[in-house]
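Reminder to self: tokens first, then the designed residues, so the page reads top to bottom the way the pipeline ran.
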């Protein structure tokens, strides 16, 4: 049984070629996606998708624009985040995808263009779910809000620069001179 999809926008491939598809998530879909991504809220989610049928599948390019509210990883305070991201996805038939994975064997070396390949079956693909997954990759799970430095100072926490791998070298440099 497949999991329910919060933001489903099926596209019938038999209707290609298409110029552009505009996708907008409604309040219920945005609320469900925010829960799925463990963020406070998604106040807006819009995307454009340009579909082009190619020899190896369907290429989809476009832009995602979202207004999110996240909790600061340091202070816990909520703060707004704007996401604007261009994307490029390739949808390939599931049989072709599986054949390519089997031919690659145990070790698969991915080229840049291979990273956003999505397998589909039948004559439809779900652009909404692809947009959702692409948005999820844009969300910083350790985002810091405007109050992060004050929270660090209040609780005596060091910054990543102060405790990172080069902190000891910096301290030695200051000591020497």
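Designed residues (177 positions):
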């Amino acid at each position: 049984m497949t999991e329910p999809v919060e933001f489903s926008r099926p596209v019938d491939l038999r209707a290609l070629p298409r110029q552009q598809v505009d996708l907008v998530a409604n309040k219920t879909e945005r609320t469900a996606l925010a829960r799925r991504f463990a963020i406070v809220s998604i106040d807006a989610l819009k995307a454009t998708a340009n579909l082009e049928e190619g020899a190896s599948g369907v290429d989809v390019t476009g832009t995602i624009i979202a207004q999110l509210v996240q909790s600061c990883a340091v202070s816990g305070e909520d703060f707004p985040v704007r996401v604007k991201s261009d994307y490029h996805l390739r949808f390939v038939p599931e049989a072709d995808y599986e054949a390519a994975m089997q031919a690659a064997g145990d070790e698969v070396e991915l080229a840049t263009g291979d990273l956003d390949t999505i397998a589909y079956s039948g004559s439809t693909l779900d652009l909404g779910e692809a947009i959702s997954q692409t948005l999820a990759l844009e969300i910083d799970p350790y985002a810091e809000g405007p109050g992060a430095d004050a929270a660090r100072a209040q609780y005596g926490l060091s910054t990543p620069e102060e405790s990172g791998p080069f902190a000891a070298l910096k301290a030695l440099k200051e000591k020497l001179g």
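Residues 84 and 152 are 29 Å apart (CA to CA).
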